[in-house]
Every structure is written in structure tokens, then in C-alpha cells.
Design goal:
The chain has 6 helices and 12 strands. It is an alpha/beta fold and 254 residues long. The strands form 2 sheets. A 5-stranded mixed beta barrel has the order 7-11-10-8-12, surrounded by 4 helices.
Length: 254
């Protein structure tokens, strides 16, 4: 039944079916149910170059996607995420249709507090839903939260291995060029530590399709000041490599 609203983005239909539904496509199951989504193409290229991955599945079409499996850790797959909820979280629903049950996301995001250092890890506890995708999966709300048990499992693992980290919520927005000073301050006041473009959607799909989902985002560029500071966040190869390898362990823990 549709809950009507003056604004289309706030209308919600609780019908679990849809005209286009990956769960009705009889997709061939993956060989494992554990997946890492990373936004580090440099790490992916390095893994492929060093013959550490083998192709699990290729999805063709206008926006092709490759899923790989670790040769030395065959129960874990990895794929390169695509920016934005419709692409990243939309693909995630297809992956769930292929049997994925446990997902770890790792990427970088713009810090809303200059005191968050480049490479500092944030375990995502939820997101401010400043996008449109998640509203088709979960009833309208200002926030969406991760599963507390999964968050606790991730944090316990990091603590046991002496890996420093923060916890908190993100600000998910579709419009990377409309992060105005006033909005940055407002989202920061609401508790957001990092701005990114996928978490609200991925969390919504995970809740809608009932699979385990965790995310770690590292502090990247700084959008908290009057002028944007890239802080060379995308050149931190060691941090990015280590985070992917960390998620290989975590996806088997959650």
C-alpha cells in the first residue's frame, strides 16, 4: 500500500515486489556468500596484477561489473563499488539475489571535523538520509542505523587487534557539489562525522533484503573549512590496502 505525500520522494510503498525484481531472475548463486565492496581501484588493480584474484562473475550491460574471489581466501569475494546509491546499492541488491549474505564496505569520505585525521577509521553506525534511493526501501525517516550487533562485532575485533577507530554516523548525499557551508555545519551538529554517497542506500537494501552489512570509511578530504582540502586522501596506498585486508577478516566475523 502506498503512503501518499505531497513530495514524491517521501511516498512509500510497502509492497515487497516490484516490476523489475532481481530476486525473480533465477540468478546463478555465487560460490560464496561473503563480499567486500571497496572504492579503492588502486588496490583492486594491485591485487589483479599480483594474481591474487580470480573472476567469480561478470555482469555485462551498459555499466559492467566484475566480482572477484580471493585465490588464497576463496570464501571471500571483492568488487569495486560505483559512486552513488543507485549504482552501488542497486548492484548490491543484485548481489543479494545471487546469494550474498555478509557484506563489508570500505571506502573514504570527506571529514566534517578537521580533527579527524587522514586515514582515521570510522565504523559506520548509521547515516543521515539526504538522498532519494533509500526512501524506496525503508519508510521515510531522517536517519537509518546499522545493526548494533554487527557494529559491536566490528568494534570488538578492531579493539582486540589494537586498531584505532571512531564510531558514528555519516551524511549520505547525492549532490557532491552542493555540500554548502551551512549544510556542513547542520549535518555536523546532527552528529555526522563524514560525508559520503552510498551508506544510506546500502543500509536500506541490507535491511530490506535481510543480510548482514558493515562499513568502515576512512577520513579523506576535508570539507569542514571554507576551502576544500583534498589532503591527498586518494594517494594513501598503504592505508587502503590494509583496510581491504582488514575487511577480508571482518566479513567472516559479522
Amino acid at each position: 500500500m502506498i503512503i501518499e505525500n505531497e513530495y514524491p520522494v517521501l511516498e512509500f510503498d510497502d509492497d515487497m515486489d516490484a516490476v523489475v525484481n532481481p530476486f525473480k531472475w533465477n540468478l546463478e548463486p555465487f560460490s560464496t556468500d561473503k563480499l567486500i565492496i571497496t572504492f579503492f581501484p588502486d588496490v583492486m588493480n594491485d591485487l589483479i596484477k599480483n594474481n591474487r584474484l580470480e573472476l567469480e562473475r561478470h555482469f555485462g550491460g551498459e555499466n559492467p561489473v566484475d566480482i572477484y574471489r580471493f585465490k588464497d581466501n576463496p570464501e571471500v569475494m571483492i568488487t569495486l563499488g560505483i559512486v552513488g546509491c543507485p549504482s552501488c546499492a542497486g548492484n548490491l541488491e543484485v548481489f543479494a539475489g545471487c546469494g550474498v549474505k555478509k557484506v563489508m564496505f570500505c571506502g573514504g569520505g570527506g571529514v566534517l571535523d578537521k580533527n579527524i585525521k587522514v586515514g582515521e577509521l570510522l565504523v559506520v553506525e548509521g547515516a543521515i538520509r539526504d538522498e532519494g534511493f533509500s526512501y524506496r526501501y525503508i519508510k521515510p525517516s531522517r536517519y537509518i542505523y546499522s545493526d548494533k550487533k554487527i557494529t559491536e562485532t566490528i568494534c570488538s575485533y578492531l579493539k582486540a587487534h589494537n586498531i584505532p577507530h571512531l564510531t558514528g554516523i555519516t551524511w549520505t548525499t547525492d549532490a557532491m557539489f552542493r555540500e554548502t557551508k551551512a549544510l556542513v555545519e547542520r549535518r555536523k551538529a546532527e552528529g555526522a562525522k563524514i560525508v559520503e554517497m552510498e551508506q544510506a542506500g546500502c543500509l536500506a537494501v541490507a535491511q530490506f533484503r535481510s543480510f548482514d552489512y558493515g562499513a568502515i570509511i576512512y577520513g579523506g578530504d576535508d570539507v569542514s573549512q571554507d576551502e576544500w582540502d583534498t589532503r591527498s586522501w586518494d594517494k594513501r596506498g598503504g592505508i587502503r590496502q590494509n583496510l581491504v585486508m582488514l575487511c577480508c577478516d571482518l566479513v567472516k566475523e559479522i
